[in-house]
Design a protein that fits this description.
The chain has 218 residues and is mainly α. It is built from 9 helices and no strands. It folds into 2 domains: 106 residues, Orthogonal Bundle (Rna Polymerase Sigma Factor, Chain: A); 72 residues, Winged helix-like DNA-binding domain superfamily/Winged helix DNA-binding domain (Arc Repressor Mutant, subunit A).
């Protein structure tokens, strides 16, 4: 995993008093509710929200844009959007999915700006695949040096395989396998039908499994 992205307060700072409670003791739900209080989130409360969820933003952007050198700038923009729009979130329990949606939409916005060409993909071909989760774990109670090396190599190959997926496949597999979002949430985020989401995930899994078969057979 890439190094955690540090987000500066210089672009999301606001002149509001510090929170009167220990924000690190608040539940995620209460923390989000406090961020929604007032016209803009309290600085200390929002800083705690950023601390708890910054890794998620970093992870989503890392897998969506592994070859982009400006992911830190994208992460900064994600949090600016969160800061400005968190009052629009009607269900605090869905903050995690909402945050992933912001990061994903920002990625697509930037992708369109860069006018990257993506070959059209046909998703009409029927597939008969197991819709269960992929198991990327390598068996072993106490892995030795060779097994640890194999594991490291596997995850390096997995990251490369995900990076090589076409954009539409990579987005859905990241949101499903990395972020653990439900199919319905992914359909809402990507703006496609539930059937299309399932088809893309199944085909992405099939590609990854074919590419990593040597490791999965160990």
């Amino acid at each position: 995993m890439s190094q955690s992205i540090t987000v500066s307060w210089s672009t999301v700072d606001a002149k509001y008093p510090e929170a009167s409670v220990q924000v690190d003791k608040l539940s995620n739900h209460d923390l989000i509710l406090r961020c929604q209080a007032g016209l803009r989130p309290d600085r200390a409360v929002f800083a705690e929200l950023l601390r708890r969820y910054q890794t998620q933003v970093d992870r989503v952007l890392y897998h969506l844009a592994p070859d982009w050198s400006d992911r830190a700038d994208l992460a900064q923009e994600v949090w600016i959007r969160v800061y400005r729009n968190i009052n629009r979130l009607q269900e605090p329990a869905k903050f995690r999915g909402w945050l992933s949606r912001i990061a994903t939409n920002l990625f697509y916005d930037e992708l369109r700006k860069r006018k990257r060409f993506v070959s059209p993909l046909s998703l009409d071909a029927p597939r008969s695949l197991d819709d269960g989760e992929m198991d990327w774990e390598i068996a072993g109670d106490t892995p030795g040096p060779e097994e640890q090396l194999t594991t490291r190599e596997f995850y390096e190959q997995l990251r490369e395989a995900i990076a090589d997926l076409p954009e539409v496949f990579r987005t859905t597999i990241v949101l499903r396998e990395i972020e653990g979002l439900a199919y319905e949430e992914i359909a809402e985020i990507t703006g496609v039908s539930l059937g299309t989401v399932k088809s893309r995930i199944a085909r992405a899994r099939s590609r990854l499994q074919a590419q990593l078969q040597n490791y999965l057979d160990i």
